[in-house]
Specification:
Mean pLDDT: 85
CATH architecture of one domain: Orthogonal Bundle
Strand content: 15-25%
Helix content: 25-40%
Distance between the termini: 125 Å
Number of strands: 26
Structural class: alpha+beta
CATH class of one domain: Mainly Alpha
Number of helices: 23
Length: 803
């Protein structure tokens, strides 16, 4: 008995010594590593790398830029099931231990001693936070010691909720996804509150080996990790057996989801990206900036559809260029899947392989979709393309167009039928602005951003042709002309060294119509009248006037070709200049960024555009405020600064009124299909039909459409502004103005309407049966003339080459 007591006392003493020694060792280790421990405070100030996100004005995502996909969430935004799944998989005693789970460490040590293998880590979520943010990832004992002490420090200075929030937002989960918010989007295209139990368990299983165990990399490994997490959730009581079995049976999705872009505006997104790089540098991709643009999602969708449909219609008019490739279906060695992998379908199209050709139909196979039949309605357009002016004969059967083994592109015509398609070679652009403040409401710079990043709306500087004539006529009204001034439409010949040869401009019809009122000359797009007008007022006077529209003088030639639109402008610049006519004479600047906020939601930049207010110039209407255009909202928190006048209100009204006649009975008459009487606009076609334009507006919206080849060449016979660009404008404005009230210009003070002779432009006599009403400035009413009958002015020119 005494021996036993001596042994017991000896053991107790030894245990005390060992415990004391261990305690002293721990204390010594702590003070040894203390100088090398990073400050925990840096965790509270850490900046998570969050991508740049770009939104429409109505809150729809249009672009996201950044190497890391991350969607930071507050603790309250994490569903309980997410937290339960991660704790079950990584640290089920997280809310109980002080940062280091001693039980887990003991289990890991025992397992290592028994097996010689490191099967259990014994780490905690807090230790992972310490390692990932404040330490290196080297696998050494000293690093592990620092990790333990740092975890204890973190727990002492941060709450459990703060630690878990940082962990769930920052942990790498594969495929560029950092944090569970991004992982939910990347792997399942969902937000965290939309995840099923199986999807939640899949994400919670990723931290161990995110690059290897994610479902995109390996469905098998992801399924195994999901099963492990579900079993652990059952063990911790988070789920029951029935929930486990249902989740186990759910198929594993292996699709990589991109950011959920809700609005198709990649050209605008690229404009924002470049602007943000100029403003803040590389931090634009990582600092969590949010940019709200002026784009309206409804109008943007309409613009993209209108441009693509217009370019496809042009393309079909010029014939089918043939299949993308051909494969021998009878060749047993033909690797069809590999061949298909080398091609990409154009926007809105699908790749399809022709499997059988019948009399007037074709059977095709769409990879991943199955069999699709093309009926004759979707094939009969496909006359063979020879050149831009020539097509082959009308096809009689499907065999005249396609053969088995052809790899083609098709697109839906409606819910039940498909059409043979091809990516257009021709390109185009469309841009729409709010004329009140210059906000860009919609913009598309080409058929397909994935094929070409070149933004034709902002980068393609082309000649607008007769779409420029309204500026010449505006200058004329400021230099003594009226809408009824008669100018002779007759041949002119110029010898000008700057033109390198004798210049004999002519009308499109190659006919001359003699004395023509100014309004009729614009309505019928008479080149010779425009040249005579410019020569009369002087090129310098015209340039001084046109500069007030925001058009750079350096872009305009100092010769008479200016009258026919030989200036070089982008579609955005032309639309911006047209806002002066639409808003009553005021100069506003186009802009596309409404505001920029940082990661904390602080507004760091807010647009404060000048506001056009025609009514404010009239004392009796001084209390009225201008209304925003279609799809726009006014920021009432900012002090309104009104835009300066570019031209007189009377001038703007008269030119807009003349352009309204261009639509009612001139080269823009196709726009009458919209059934509105508040539209004004002008067609434009350049020399050899290299460019086709239409720019038009009402009081709510200005839009410009352009069509041409990137490598300039003629568009082909009869491809003028009224046939090629105007249909795009009509499609867009038809959707944009649907349900909107009429917004005609309000006649400003200082104008009077009187009856004039349609042939002389002078005040009409009582017996003049062909008299018309015309509007003038009060001080420019023409004198009375003798009664006379009207002379014909001829038909509207279909279009007009420059020279």
């Amino acid at each position: 008995m005494k021996l036993f007591l001596r042994l017991l006392y000896a053991a107790a003493a030894l245990l005390l010594v060992l415990t004391t020694a261990a305690g002293l060792a721990v204390i010594g280790a702590y003070y040894y590593v203390l100088p090398s421990l990073p400050a925990v405070e840096s965790l509270q100030d850490i900046r998570l790398q969050v991508p740049l996100r770009v939104y429409t004005r109505d809150g729809r995502l249009l672009a996201e830029y950044g190497e890391m996909r991350r969607t930071p969430l507050n603790f309250e935004q994490f569903p309980p099931q997410i937290i339960e799944a991660f704790l079950a998989a990584e640290d089920d005693r997280f809310f109980e231990h002080p940062g280091v789970d001693y039980q887990g460490l003991v289990r890991a040590a025992v397992a290592l001693a028994l097996t010689g293998e490191r099967r259990q880590g014994g780490g905690t979520i807090t230790m992972q936070v310490a390692r990932n943010f404040l330490l290196t990832r080297e696998k050494t004992i000293s690093r592990k010691v620092r990790e333990i002490f740092l975890a204890l420090r973190i727990e002492n200075q941060m709450s459990k909720q703060e630690i878990l929030t940082l962990y769930l937002n920052a942990i790498f989960l594969g495929q560029r996804a950092y944090g569970v918010g991004a992982a939910a989007e990347v792997y399942f295209g969902k937000t965290v509150d939309q995840l099923s139990l199986a999807e939640t368990a899949t994400i919670a299983g990723l931290p161990k080996a995110p690059s290897r165990d994610n479902p995109v990399a390996s469905v098998e490994r992801a399924t195994q990790r999901r099963a492990y997490v579900l079993r652990r959730m059952l063990e911790t009581g988070s789920i029951d057996r029935q929930q486990l079995e249902q989740a186990m049976d759910e198929p594993m999705e292996s699709i990589l989801h991109s950011a959920t872009v809700e609005t198709n505006a990649p050209y605008v997104g690229e404009m924002v990206r470049q602007q943000m790089l100029e403003l803040v540098g590389p931090d634009a991709y990582t600092a969590g900036y949010v940019v709200t643009t002026t784009i309206d999602s409804r109008l943007q969708a309409a613009a993209v559809r209108a441009l693509r449909e217009g370019l496809l219609e042009y393309d079909r008019r010029h014939g089918y260029r043939g299949p993308l490739a051909r494969v021998d279906l009878a060749d047993p060695d033909a690797d069809i899947q590999q061949m298909l992998a080398g091609y990409r379908a154009g926007a809105g199209m699908q790749l399809a392989l022709v499997t059988e050709v019948k009399d007037q139909s074709v059977e095709t196979l769409i990879p991943g979709r199955g069999a699709v039949t093309l009926d004759w309605d979707g094939l009969s357009w496909a006359r063979r393309y020879i050149d831009d002016n020539t097509r082959g004969p009308e096809p009689a059967t499907a065999a005249d167009i396609l053969a088995p083994g052809d790899l083609i592109e098709i697109m839906p015509m409606n819910e039940s039928s498909w059409r043979l398609a091809q990516v257009p070679v021709v390109q185009g652009a469309i841009v729409a602005l709010d004329p009140i403040d210059g906000a860009i409401a919609a913009l598309s710079g080409g058929f397909d951003f994935q094929d070409s990043k070149y933004n034709r709306a902002t980068q393609a500087r082309r000649q607008p042709g007769s779409a420029f004539k309204p500026f010449i006529y505006s200058a004329a009204l400021e230099n003594g002309f009226t809408t009824a001034t008669v100018v002779n439409d007759a041949p002119v010949v110029f010898d000008d060294d700057r033109l390198e040869s004798t210049w004999r401009p002519e009308n499109y019809s190659q006919r001359f119509y003699g004395p023509t009122r100014l309004r009729e000359a614009l309505v019928r797009s008479r080149n010779l009248v425009s040249i005579r007008v410019l020569r009369s007022i002087g090129v310098s006077n015209a340039l001084d006037h046109i500069k007030s529209f925001g058009i750079a003088e350096s872009a305009m030639p100092r010769d008479l070709s200016l009258a026919l639109g030989s200036v070089t402008l982008t579609p955005l610049e032309l639309a911006d200049a047209y806002t002066v006519f639409a808003n009553g004479g005021f100069r506003v600047d186009a802009y596309f960024i409404d505001r920029i906020t940082d990661a904390e939601g602080n507004v760091i930049r807010q647009a404060d555009p000048l506001i056009a207010c025609a009514a404010c110039a009239d004392e009796e209407f001084a209390s009225d405020k201008p209304e925003p255009g279609i799809g726009q909202e006014r920021n009432e928190e900012l002090a309104i600064e009104y835009a300066p006048a570019a031209i007189s209100r009377q001038n703007a009204y008269l030119v807009a009124d003349m352009m309204a006649d261009v639509i009612r009975r001139g080269t823009g008459r196709r726009a009458m299909a919209l059934g509105r009487n508040d539209l004004s606009g002008k067609t434009g076609t350049t020399n050899d039909r290299r460019d086709a334009w239409f720019s038009g507006f009402n009081g709510d919206l200005v839009a410009t459409a352009w069509v041409g080849f990137d490598q300039e060449r003629p568009l082909g016979a009869r491809e003028e502004g009224g046939r090629t660009a105007l249909p795009i404008w009509v499609k867009f404005m038809g959707e944009a103005l649907q349900g909107a009230p009429q917004r005609k210009p309000v006649k400003p003070p200082g104008l009077v309407t009187v009856r004039v002779s349609s042939s002389t432009g002078l005040l009409a006599g009582s017996a003049d049966g062909d008299a018309i009403f015309e509007t003038f400035r009060a001080d420019q009413v023409p004198p009375a003339g003798e009664d006379s009958s009207a002379s014909p002015f001829g038909p509207a020119e279909d279009e007009e080459p420059i020279f």
